[in-house]
From TrEMBL:
One Pfam assignment: FAD_binding_4
DNA-binding as UniProt keyword: no
Organism of this sequence: Apiospora aurea
Sequence ranges assigned to domain FAD-binding PCMH-type in this UniProt record: 38-207
Family to which the UniProt record says this protein belongs: Belongs to the oxygen-dependent FAD-linked oxidoreductase family.
The protein, known as: FAD-binding PCMH-type domain-containing protein
Length: 215
């Protein structure tokens, strides 16, 4: 395992972190989730700072045969791994942007629900979003995504337009209706089984659809 950590650290950018000391506040905060049921402590927590860092982490883990789970928000009751593996904490790779020409939003791996909604507010737009502020946007969309907006705009997965993911070979793959379209359909509701998703593109809607301009 130490050889794997050494090889991985050499490939990561300086802004990324590899946490191994379980007694530090940073390790504990990264490991924390909404429920401590069946909680397990990984050998290390990797906090990639960019998309290429995520790709490098997956590639090194696959090459070394190290099991891993991604974390974004910490609301899953089963995304945990013990000393045999690592957690890939995406919280350092976050952010969202609205494309004015299409009104679609691109959301990075560690972005939380409230962060997405706050970023859309200046544009007077909203997306299929749950009311749990600290839920990860990407796992919410990959898992179906039910909210009070469903009667108006459908489930979160209905609003997933495109994605980027790292597959089992460690390859970064673009997914859309024109590229790897079968994989796009697979991601809509069962995306956690097909790779580590680094980014998604989703539909957004005007506040006027809710009956007012203030949201």
């Amino acid at each position: 395992m130490e050889a794997f950590i050494s090889s991985l650290t050499a490939r990561l950018s300086p802004a990324s972190k590899v946490l191994q000391d379980t007694t530090t506040s940073e390790f504990k905060a990264s490991l924390a989730r909404w429920s401590d049921i069946d909680v397990r402590v990984p050998y290390a927590i990797v906090r990639p700072a960019g998309e290429q860092d995520i790709v490098s982490t997956v590639q090194e883990a696959v090459k070394a045969g190290i099991p891993f789970v991604p974390a974004s928000g910490g609301h899953s009751p089963w995304s945990t791994v013990g000393q045999e593996g690592i957690v890939i904490d995406l919280s350092r790779y976050k952010g969202s942007s609205l494309h004015p020409e299409t009104s679609e939003a691109t959301v990075k791996g560690g972005t939380l629900m409230k962060e997405l909604e706050v970023s859309l507010h200046p544009h007077k737009r909203f997306a299929a979003a749950g009311n749990g502020n600290t839920v990860g946007v990407i796992p919410y969309y990959l898992g179906g995504g039910i909210s009070i907006y469903r009667p108006l705009i459908g489930f979160g997965s209905d609003n997933l337009i495109a994605a980027k993911l790292v597959n089992a070979k460690g390859e970064l793959v673009d997914v859309s209706e024109t590229e790897n379209s079968n994989l796009l359909w697979a991601l809509r509701g069962a995306g956690q089984f097909f790779g580590l998703v680094t980014e998604i593109t989703i539909k957004t809607y005007p506040y006027s659809l809710l009956g007012n301009e203030e949201g």
